[in-house]
Each structure stands twice: as C-alpha cells, then as structure tokens.
Queue: 4 jobs
Job 1
Amino acid sequence: MHPSSSVQQARDALAARLREIRLDSGLSAREVASMCGWHESKSSRIQSGRQAIADSDIKAWCAACGAAEQDVAELVSMNRQLDSAYIEWRRMQRGGLKRLQAAVIPLWEQTSNFWIYEPGVVPGFFQTHGYARALLTRIAEFFSTPDDGDEAALARVERERLLYTGDHRFAVVIEESVLRTSIGNADLMAGQLGHLLDVMALPSVSLGIIPFTVFRSMWPVEGFWILDGKQVVMETVSAKITVQQTGELDLYRRTFSELSSMAVHGERARNLITAAIAAL
C-alpha cells in the first residue's frame, strides 16, 4: 500500500461517516445540499470522498441532518488530522534541512516507545554525522533546497542523546540491504556500521536485521515509525505522511510484528554487520 493511499482511505472513512449521518436522518443528498445552500454535486463529492472538506461544510452537513454535537466534534477532529496528514516536502524544506531536523525533536522527546522499520537507510537516531551529512546533502541537491547539510546533520545527530537519557525505548527492524547500501565512501560506511554495533548494545535499543536469506512472510514495505502506538510517521519521496486512524494503526502494528518475527537479533545481527564491514 502506497502511503498516499492512507490519506485517501482516511478521506473515504470521513465521507462514509457523513453519508451514514445523512442516511440516519432520512434525507437525500439533494435535500442536504438544498438545506446547506449548495449545488447538488457538492453533496455528491463530499460523500464520495472526491474532494477535501472544510470544517464549515461538516458543521453545515451535520446541522442539516440533526447530528449530535459529539459527532460533529469528532468529525471536525478527523478532518483536521486529515489536513495535517499529508505535508509536501518542498513546503517543509523551504526553511532548510536543519530547520526540518530540529522541528521534530519536541515530538521525539515526548515519545517513550518507538517502533521503527527502515528498508533502505540507517534510522536517523543511529546515524553518524558523516553518514547523515552525505545523505542530507544529496537530498538538498535532489530537491534544490538550501544546502545546509552539515548543520542539518548536526541537528539530526543531536537526537541521539535520547538513546541515553529518559525512559525512551527503541525497537528497530532494518533490512540487510541497509548494511550493504553505500552512503558516502567506504570509510564513512565502515564508521557507520561500527556505530551500529555500539548502539545495539544499549539497554534502550533492540535492533533486528532481516537477512537476505530469510523466508519472507512479509514483503519489504515503506519505512515507518510508530510513536507510542498513537501515530505512524513515514517519509516518501514527495511527502511526510502521518497516520492516526485506529484501523490503520492496527495494520502498522501487525506489519511491524510480522517484520520483527523475520529479523535476527543479538549475535546473529552483529555477524551480519561485521560481514558487511568486511565486504567494504
């Protein structure tokens, strides 16, 4: 499932709730449109999930259908979460990558339990300065944003203090391909892989690696972070996606559990890392 489909699914769920409210009221879509002062086609688009909905539209719809105040508040909350779920990278990167890295630190500080799956790169909490700089500099080049890769890398590495302070816990699963994908030169990758060996020994960290040779009961999916079981955050080429709908949260929890069951930990994981270092 592509992350952008999560946004459409949330929009569909909101539209379905509005349609249920209309059906319970006994009104037709045409009657609701008339009572709200809309063209009939707007009611059709709203309950089909084909357009973004303003809070005022939800309130007008619910007023026409005689919905309870509690339902109105819940639907408005769903709509606002939907509005913030899909944020274009270009808009977020406008102030430079350093600002983007620093902006998420308050959320990380408030999170006690992280469940992280990454199929392609070392998770940010585990990145060395050199690895982060090489990655972020290339991102800046690709998106033609201000090149503050060094400062952004420092801001990203600053997050690592959470591995050592507070009651934060990190359950991390990566694909073996992360170990074999070269970001920067061989010396930089050797340093990064050596750093992985260090952080996986921390009491706050559980690191699992899915080997190339494992029988896969779950295919590789997009990288995602589950934060305290309350929301999922993921990054695509074009956007940052936040998921907060209960059904989708359950789906990502199940996915993480399945991926984790295929991963090796402890000595077997360390052997995969040392083998990757030797291959450099």
Job 2
Amino acid sequence: MAACVAVAAEEELTVDAIHTDRLTLRAFREDDAQDLLGYLHQPGASCFLSMKLDDLPAARAAAIKRSSEPDTYALEHHPSGRVIGEVFGHLEPPDTFSIAWMIHPDFAGQGLAHEAAKAIVDHLFQQRDVRRVYAYVETDNLPSQRLCARLGMRQEGLFKEFISFENDAAGKPIYVDTMQFALLKKEWAAA
C-alpha cells in the first residue's frame, strides 16, 4: 500500500517519535537498512520505483539519508521489532502538507498504514498547526484510495496521464492517472 507525494519545500524540523498501539514512528537509523531493503527491493507502487534499492549497501545509504530528512518517519512494528514501512511528506509553506506512505507487503491489510497515517495527520493538525493535508494516489492503487477515505480525505481531482514513472519495452513513457485526496484541519476536528 502506498501513496505518492508532490515534491515541495522542506521545513527544518527534527523527527519526534510518535507512538501508537502497534507502532513507533521515529527517525530512521543506519541499522534499519535491512528492513528498508525488504520493502524497497520491489516497490509496491509505481511512484516509488525511483526509490528502488538493489542491495544492502544501497539500503544503508538510503537509511542514513532518511535519518536526516525532516518529516520522514520509519514505522517500527512493536511485535516484530522491524521497520515495516514509512510515512513521509513535505511542508508547502505556509500550512499545507503533502503526505505519502508505504508498507512492507507482508504487513499490508492489517490496518497498520491507517494507524500510522492517522497518527501523522493528527500530529500535523494538532502539533504543527497544518491547515491542509493532501496525497496523490494512482487510480490502480485501491488500498491507498481506501486509506484516504478512512482518514476522511475527499477526492479533489483526477489527473489524466499525470506522470510517468517507468517506460514500456519500446522505451516510451507509461503515463498513469493520479487522484488527489485532501483533508482540512477543520474537517479532521469535526470528524
């Protein structure tokens, strides 16, 4: 399950740990490399193909890079002790935040992505005073569309042939249709 984000300006913030029933959302560490490789060796959504990792050294470098990125959270699963995915995004000044998530396929369908995304959205609205959160999701990514709906996000648009993440056998770009979902702080508070 994954949602894609638009690239935007970053705000210099440290990642504070956020705790849920089954997860700790925290900064990445170098020793998360093996787990990171586990879900990025074959990314589940085409928008994450550029993040594909081929081996442990690449995963180690990616974990180190993520450890210094603001608003990038490793999802540490309490029962297994593993990092099973991540939630990340970017602040678009002054008060809009793009959000994305991905989770290891072995842990999909257990409500963990919802648990993590809900905790981050609540953190953004309550602690960071963000006014609006949005996510881009490809039309073929039904689990992320359902997650957006569970969060109370509404579909704001459909971008036909919005972007290409890969090429076909002839080298021509494969364009995907992308939906935009969004949620306002006042909608979150009213739910």
Job 3
Amino acid sequence: MKKSIFFLICLFTVMAHSQEIKPIPQISVTGEGKVKIAPDQVLILATVETKGTNAKDVKKQNDQQMEAVLKLVKSMDLAPTDYKTKRVSLNPQYDYEKKKSSYNATQTVEILLKDLSKYDELMEGLVDKGINRIDNVTFQSSKLAQFQSEARKLAMKEAKIKAEDYVSVLGQKVGAAITIADNSQTYYPQPVYAMRAMKTESMNDAAPRETMAAGEIEITANVSVSFKLD
C-alpha cells in the first residue's frame, strides 16, 4: 500500500512539473552553400593488358610494358608517393567454341599528377610505353578540405538569413542556434575522360593539342538549423 501511494505521489509530481515546462519558441530552416573551384591536380588510373596462349610469356610481356611505364613516370619527376600499382592479375580464359585456352594479364597503376601542364605529355607517354587502357581520369583539388569548410560556412549564413527573413514580419529576433544537422553528402570527385588519349595516323604531331577540359569542381554543403526566437 505504501508503495502504491509513493508511486502516485511521484506520478503527480512529474505531471505537475511537465505542465510547467513551456515550449521554446524556435524556427527550423535549411541552408545550402556552394563553392566552385578550378582543379589543380588529376588522378589517372591506367592499365597494361596483355593476352596470349602461354601464361609465362603473357606475364613477362606485361611486366616489361609496366616497367617501361614506371620508368616514364619516374622521369617526369613525380614523387614516389604520387604513383602506385593498384591491381595485378593473371587469369586463364577458355574459348568453348575453339576449345582453346588463353591467358589475360593486367596491371593497373594509379598516378596523381600535380602539374596539369604535363597532362598531355604524360598521357601520350603512357600509351607509347604500353598502356592500352585508360580506366578513368579524375580532376581534383589539393585544397578540398579548405573549400569544404567555406561551403559549410556559406550554408550556415544562408540558414540564418532565411530565419531572419521569416521572423522579420513577426517583430521577433533570431537567437542562438538550438540544433544543427549536417545534411551534406560525401564529396566524390567525378571522373572526366580525356577527349583524346591515343595517337592516330592523321594527327599532326607538330600541331599544338589540347586533350582535356578540366572544367570546375562544385562543392556543396547542406545544413538544417533550429534557432531560438527572442
């Protein structure tokens, strides 16, 4: 009996206390910030692929071509940390119609080129030395974190301006932020493929060429903010 009376007293106390709590006047808005920048580096994923009927010969040919590729990369004064082997494979293949086996060897190298003026020279050299597959070319910025921070600040400023616009006709003022939620999606650089990567017989080697259009990188930040109203 005593326990029941104690429980009822606690219940009435909580109910009385909850009735005294008043909701905080607030406004919830969203904000978006965008920053457009020119890329200053490019990430290249390139592959040497060789085929044949003898696994040892196919692998040897593949290794020789990749060795020539890596020598080219080193000759362009790239830092050792700016290139690395990404994938290596040697797979048997069987032709059921001809009833013959063959082998396919691949090696993929990832190259970070921080001097875009060397792009054409590097791409032509890669093909000359044995690269026969350009998997993708992705333009990036070395100052990505800095520009992401700028985009977030712009998003917060837009959210506050929105809130001030809404309450300006009500005679109220926007106070401190109560909650802030980052709704931004993770930024992934989009691959941009070169217009020409391989030489053709009709191409005039003496003529100046432009084989890429780096364009701009757009970084977007989105936030949801609840402000207290004074």
Job 4
Amino acid sequence: MSTSATTHDHKKIQKWAEEREGVPSKIKNTGKEEDSGVIRIHFPKHSDADDRFEEISWEDFFKNFDKNNLDLLYQDKKADGEISTFHKFVERKK
C-alpha cells in the first residue's frame, strides 16, 4: 500500500529529495529578476526534459516555496514497495 504525507519542513523536504537524487530547480523563463519562477524538484535520472529545468540553490528554492505558502505532498514508496519520486506542491493549510 502506498501512502502520502504533506510537509513544509525544509529539512525533511531536502532530505526526501536528496535521497532520490532530486535537485531544487526552476522551469526556465518563468521568473523575473529576483523571482525564481516556477519551482520544481527535478530528478535528472528519471527525466528526458532536462533542458526545461535550471538547478537553483535550496535557499532560493525555499524562499520561493515559503513566499507562495506551499506544502509538499509526497510519497515515500509506491504500492509495490519501490522508492517513489511522486510529489506535488499544494497550498499550505492554515
């Protein structure tokens, strides 16, 4: 059985991503000057669209994440027990 969890804890998010070789990224050409634009956790080993993503620092990632009042909805393992990279950003509940 697969389950999901939600968090906005920076250390937990970074640990989850790095355990799966994920990197903080933005989608190119979506931000202006100081704005990172649309952020993502990118998993280069599982993607063939690397040219759409630009790696950013965790600091810049979390600045945008908090500014937009986001939580990370994520899955640790798939139903078959395999490590999962499933995640999405959702509006933080008050």
